[in-house]
Amino acid sequence: MSSIRSTKSTIRDIASHAGVGAGTVSRVLNNHPHVSDSTRAKVLKAIEELNYRPSFSARQMRTGKSQVIGFITDEIASTQFAVNIIKGAQAVAWDYGKLVLVVNSDGNRAIEYEAIEMMLERGVDGIIYASMFHRQAQLPDSIHEVPAVLIDCFLPDRSLPSVVPDEFGAAHEATEILIRKGHRRIGLINLGGEAKPAIEGRLAGYTAAMQAHGLYDPDLIVHGGDEGAGRHGYASAMKLMKLTERPTAIFCAQDRIAAQAYRALHELGIAIPNEVAVMGFDNHIDVATTLSPLLSTMALPHLEMGQWAVEYLLSGAGEPLEPVQVKLPCPYIERQSI
Amino acid sequence: MSSIRSTKSTIRDIASHAGVGAGTVSRVLNNHPHVSDSTRAKVLKAIEELNYRPSFSARQMRTGKSQVIGFITDEIASTQFAVNIIKGAQAVAWDYGKLVLVVNSDGNRAIEYEAIEMMLERGVDGIIYASMFHRQAQLPDSIHEVPAVLIDCFLPDRSLPSVVPDEFGAAHEATEILIRKGHRRIGLINLGGEAKPAIEGRLAGYTAAMQAHGLYDPDLIVHGGDEGAGRHGYASAMKLMKLTERPTAIFCAQDRIAAQAYRALHELGIAIPNEVAVMGFDNHIDVATTLSPLLSTMALPHLEMGQWAVEYLLSGAGEPLEPVQVKLPCPYIERQSI
DNA sequence: GCCTGGACTGGAATCGTTTCCATGTCATCG
DNA sequence: CGATGACATGGAAACGATTCCAGTCCAGGC
Q: In the structure, how far is the CA atom of residue A23 from the C1' atom of nucleotide C23, in angstroms?
């Protein structure tokens, strides 16, 4: 059918083909008022016939808006399930008619700085910076030249709006859920590594809930190692099970830790959830659903954070963004381990 | 320090500040010859002082190159580990000084068509279309208006270059590896669903290897169901183990299937790998490494496909791309299950 | 001393839109 | 019936770069 047009047509081609002025074509294109129906029809017909496609770069040059937002992330693939942040961000941007420029820095700060520079040169309408785990971020001053929102991280001076998971609330709720199920001795195997806010928030949430019910006992808390991938979960679970008054539930601050805890419990011949209940954290789908029994866990609101960030970036009708600091709830995903 | 400049400076501001013509500034910016060192120095100084940043949209309008490539994918998050395709693509684009516009269609064809349209309007230098599982794709004619490369899929008429995993070769090698280890009775639990080339390729590779060694027996093959997430793996493994002459190795055409097979073998009290070896497929990290023993598997070359696609798109110095059909090898990842 | 050609430079034209201003038309109102 | 707006429209200017053309300068060859 419509053969590939070799030479692009411009708004003036449309104008002369339709027998009108260039300004009129532009008015039709942008749905401006004060265009008669007959003229509009002629223009639309010409657009159709010449297979016209407007040039965004020309439009951007004139209006200053690129209809593109930049998305920078430090480690897109190290914790793969977090791609939902991108997915959510892109989906909302799409609803606003905007496209997303993505760059993955692999944690290399020089790349992040250069990426921001490149995005600025391209005149993006805004920038989202997403960390793949909850931490404090460090960004160049130039980030302030354009609206920007942070995901899963925050600036030392809080000068940029940010959205992070409510670590404290989630850990508190997880613990409460276990308590409500009748558990009194609840162990915590915490994270290791550099995700400070997550480590501290989850610990604090757990502690608060335990103390509120007079169940707190420091022996029940095992602090994580740095081995990554939750590998210390095995030894930690073993340690917990050796306690004289051993826990009837374990709250693992990460699904991967839970996977290793499962392994320990299996070896000890302890049944999940009958003898010991296990609560995870992250809703790391591939882990939670290959475990048997399926792991109950607190879900990190990745998708929602991505959505929130873009929504906030774009909904403000141009005026500077308030640097609000938002915490999103982490829903409880009930499966079989509790 | 350097205060945020409120009003952008243009190339003409630089020109007058440096006391030269606009053309000269442009020549400096683009490293053209025939600029004296002293002039160059003056211009560079002015750029520095005015904190000048060139406008890509103006540049694009004049040159026609956007320095951006489009990346469309059908289901970025359904099989999360495949984000490596994006990661690889973006990394190579970065090396070429280009940024990547990403849109996730969620399998919605209307979105894909519109995404291509939007990318064309923005004048992308090329488009990558990536499927998250190996299949035949369907794209609008307009895709031919710009250089394009397909990942993990192909067009019915093969009119676009594509890069896919070598399913046959990988399955063949996997089977050979098991045979070399001394196995004679090797079961195959194949995929279900709509990933035709993967299903057929893996079956053919297995079959060829078995036949070449005179080991082929149709009873050893279990065809997958549609339940998804490899859930049929449990029943399939059970079935295989009930064979009178039961297999000493199982080749699972997907790591998730292997996870379910593990469950069946555990229940039957069959030790992996001593009594039965298990080979996976996909190198679905989170699955393969939470299983115990760790799963040996064939890795899908996601990162490499992403890299190859962009490399091929960008390396051709402008002339139309040959529609080559490339198959990338799937490396064997040795762990503990064989 | 004149001519030639190369190096360097300034400035106009151009890319494809949007926006603003000026003009023309027509119905309405006093 | 002339003045007044509201509406419709054409066309020029502007956005910020690149590129081409023409002009200046200077060294070297005759």
A: 15
